[in-house]
Amino acid sequence: MFHNILVCVDGSVHSDRALDEAIDLATTENGRLTILTAVPRLPAWAGTSATAAAVQPLANELRAQATTALRDAVDRVPQSMPVTMILSEKPIREALTEQLRAGTYDLLVMGSRGRGALSSSVLGSVSHYALNHAGVPVLIIHAAVAQNSEQSVDDRPRSGATPSAEPDEADPRVPAETATSIA
Q1: What is the DSSP code (8-state) at residue 55?
Q2: What's residue 81's pLDDT?
Q3: How do 107-111 and 180-182 pair as beta strands?
Q4: CA–CA gap between residue 104 and residue 5 (Å, rounded)
Q5: CA 133, CA 149: separation in Å to the nearest integer?
Q6: How far apart are CA 93 and CA 149, in angstroms?
Q7: What is the Cα–Cα distance from 40 to 58, expressed in whole angstroms?
Q8: Domains of the chain: which residue ranges?
Q9: Helix 13-28 to helix 52-76 angle, to the nearest 10 degrees?
């Protein structure tokens, strides 16, 4: 039923649970995963000439965090499962819309809330947008299930994956032409 699954990750507990569910679905259906993450954007005021030099380290840190979230997600996918990783510099809504239009996905899986304080305050931001614009079934995962279980997401054994490549390098499980980074 779901053979080509797009899953959004950002390193939050909600996205970790979403990835777990996407892996389970793809395993059951002999499917493949595309894992998408976006580098968080700096606020508009940070782009002025007066602040540009001061905020550059923050921009670098945000990119490093997104890269780590993507790498960690790919590490959790079983070796036998095809996976494509996408690191986007675009805002997540734009990157998500672009992927959904370009791909032939059967399902979008994402956490109900992301890492940002503002987006954590409401189910609204990206997940609400996806529900209204995806054009494919959307599975929204809440982290409460993981918090109530005996093991937290971080305590679970990983899926036997090997150390990951840099996001701009091809994962050995994915043909080189499908491992992409959206600029």
Answers
A1: H
A2: 96
A3: unpaired
A4: 9
A5: 32
A6: 31
A7: 10
A8: 4-182
A9: 30
The yes/no answer on whether domain 4-182 falls in CATH 3.40.50.620 is: yes
pLDDT in tens, 74-87: 999 999 999 999 99
pLDDT in tens, 14-63: 899 999 999 999 999 999 999 999 998 776 666 677 776 777 788 888 89
Tell me the longest C-alpha to C-alpha distance in the chain: 53
Counts of helices then strands in the chain (DSSP H, E): 6, 6
Within a 13 Å sphere around the CA of 35, how many CA atoms are in the beta-carbon half? 32
pLDDT (tens digit per residue) in 117-143:
444 333 347 887 887 778 899 999 887
How far, in Å, CA of 143 to CA of 134, rounded?
22
Residue 127 backbone phi and psi in degrees, to 5: -65, -40
Tell me how far CA of residue 66 lies from CA of 80, 107, 119, 131, in angstroms: 24, 22, 16, 23
Question: Which residue matches tokens 């960690």?
Answer: 72
Q: Which residues contact 166 (CB under 8 A, 6 or more apart)?
A: 67, 71
Report if pTM > 0.85.
no
Give which of 7, 48, 20 is closest to 155, Cα–Cα. Answer: 20
